[in-house]
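How a chain folds remains the central question behind the approach discussed here. In the encoding step, the backbone of a single protein was reduced to a row of integers, each denoting a local shape. We regard such an encoding as a compact summary of how the chain folds. The sequence in question and its structure tokens are set out directly beneath this paragraph:

___
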Amino acid sequence: MLERLNQALELIERRLDREIDVAELARVAATSEYHLRRLFSALAGVPLSEYVRRRRLTVAGAEVLAGREPLLAIAVRYGYGSGEAFARAFRALHGVGPGEARRTGAALVAQPRLSFRLTVEGNSSMRYRVVDRPGFRVVGRKARVPLVHSGPNQAIVDFVRGIDPRDVERLEELSDDEPRGVVAVCDDLDPSRAEGTELDYYHGVITSADAPEGTVVLPVPEGTWAVFTTSGPVPRAIQELWRDVFTQWFPSNPYRSRPGPEILRTRMSPDGAEADAELWLPVEREGDRARG
């Protein structure tokens, strides 16, 4: 898997001055577009689209400093329709406009080329199971919130705090399927998974019961799920579980992620410092029909 990802990275380098087709990258990586975006973001720590943007501006920056071509010609080569658009993007990465960089020989920011390598540490084992299950329903409260990669998501914290505890108790009584109890569900994420993009967050339960007034229903079709468990301090243990799933489990198992809601059930310790967590991710076996 990592070898094929590196082949996709090579293709990106050859196409920096042309349109890059994510579908073609996915074919080279022998996976779906959806899983490629998810896996790349987890491994690289940056969305695929952002990596491509930074690499283009890195190479463009070298050509700006070389001074051999007009700035507009460089802008057009790397996909910018105007000098103004190029200048804005250039300044956002390098902290200086292209014209000033050329005049002064300013120091620029460089996005290095990436390559993926497997490091085997063997210092922990991952507890997981794979289950096929029929369709089910999530019933609860819903909010549109920004994606936060690390640390608490304050928008979610504020949303959950704003729900009457009695309403949460009544919802929990309706739970009649796995994962049991109140769950956090993330759905309709932006394909780039960039920091600050929005997603639908549900605070609810898995149930076949009628939805109480004031709640919404998220129907989830049948499919295969990988279920991971962990215990430890919050939020660090849960964030490390997400990281390990994409950097360790997916590259070494014959599965890829597929579109669908991501479900997290947590059970907090009495002092609120630690938790037992169960993460449900929609998956499909490699080789199944691509859905991304």
Observations:
- The mean pLDDT is 90.
- The longest strand covers residues 274-285.
- The CA atoms of residues 45 and 149 lie 9 Å apart.
- DSSP finds ten helices and nine strands in the chain.
